[in-house]
Amino acid sequence: MSQTIHIDSPEHFTNILSSNRICVVDFYADWCGPCKAIAPIYEQLSAQLSRPGTLAFTKVNVDNQKQIAQTYNITAMPTFMVFKSGRETKRIKGADMKALDQAVKQLAQEASSAPSSTEGLADPFTTGGSSGWMGASLPKGYTNVNESVDKLNLDFLNLDSEAGNAKTIFENTKPSSLGAKGKSAEGKKDWIESDTDEQMMLFMPFQSTMKLHTLQITSLPPTDSDDDETPGRPRTLQLYTNRSHTLGFDEADSEPVTQKIELSEDSWDKATGTAKVELRFVKFQNISSLVIFVVDGDGEGEKTRIDRIRLIGDSGEKKAMGKLEKIGDEQGE
User: Fold this and answer.
1) What angle do CA 85, 27, 273 make, to 5 degrees?
2) Which residues are catalytic?
3) CB–CB of 215/145 below 8 Å?
4) Using one digit for the tens of pLDDT, what is the confidence trace for 65-122?
5) What are the backbone angles phi and psi of residue 163, rounded to the nearest 5°?
6) In the chain, N or C: fewer CB atoms in 10 Å?
7) Which domains does the chain have, with CATH numbers?
C-alpha cells in the first residue's frame, strides 16, 4: 500500500516538512513522460521505506501547485528534493532512477535508528547550533543571523512590562505556547506584548554589517478567548534601516520607509504561527540596524504580540564594539 502524500496546498506542504524529520519530494507533471516512467519506482520506495514522523514521501503536481514550484525554482520535471529538518539538502533533476534509489536508501539508513514518530525527536525546525528552533524553512543559501543582533543596545517602545523582556523574542528555543502546557518550564512569559495600544517600535542594532533576505515573525496569541485584552498578531509593519537610534511614534510617518508589509490571515503558518516575509533584498544590503514599527494588529483587542523574530540572511565582518551601556529596567536587565 502506497504511503505517498499528495500535496494539495502550500500550507499542507509546510506542515509535512515540519512534522517529518526527513522528507522526499517528487515534483512532477501529468503530461511528463519521464515522470510517469519513474513513478512506479518512487511508489515502491515510498511503500517500503516510509516511516511516519521520520521519513515521508510526497508528490507535488507543478501545474496544480505553481506557488510551491516557484518557491523552490523547479524548472525541470521530474525533480526530486530531499529535506532534513525543513531544509533542502539534495536535489536530483530528471528521471535518474539510480541516483534516486541510492539517495533514498541512504536516507533510510539514517532514519533506521530514529524513533518511528515525532515523539522523542528534535523539533522539526530545530537545526541545532546557533540556529535553534525555526518557525519556517530557510531559503537556500541563507542562515539565521540572530547572533549578530546587539542585544545590549536593543530599544523597544511601548512594551507591556508584565510580558517577556526584549531579548525574549531572539531566543533559540521553541515558543512555550507551542508546547503541551502552553507555558515555559519556569512559568514565565516568553513573548512580548504592546502596552497602551497596538503599536510597538523595535530598534535592533547589529554587531556586524548585515544582508537581510527574510524575516520570520512568530505570533501565538490565544485563540479561545474573546476578551478585549487578548492581543492580536501584527498586521501592518514598516521597516527602517541604518538608524542610529529608535524612532519615536510621532516621527515614524515623516521618515522614509524601507519596506511596508501587510500581513493577512494566510500569511501565518497554522502549525508554527509564523509569517515568512521576503524582503526587497536590494534594499537590505550592508545595513547596520533595523527598526520594525508594528503599526497595527489583526485582533479586536488593543494589543499585539510577538513570540519570536528570526533574521535570515548573511552577516559580514564584526564591528569593533566600544563600551556598551546596558538598557534600563524596561528591557529586563
Assistant:
1) 40
2) 32, 35
3) no
4) 999 999 999 999 999 999 888 888 889 999 998 888 888 888 877 766 444 333 333 3
5) -90, -165
6) N
7) 5-111 (3.40.30.10), 143-331 (2.60.120.470)
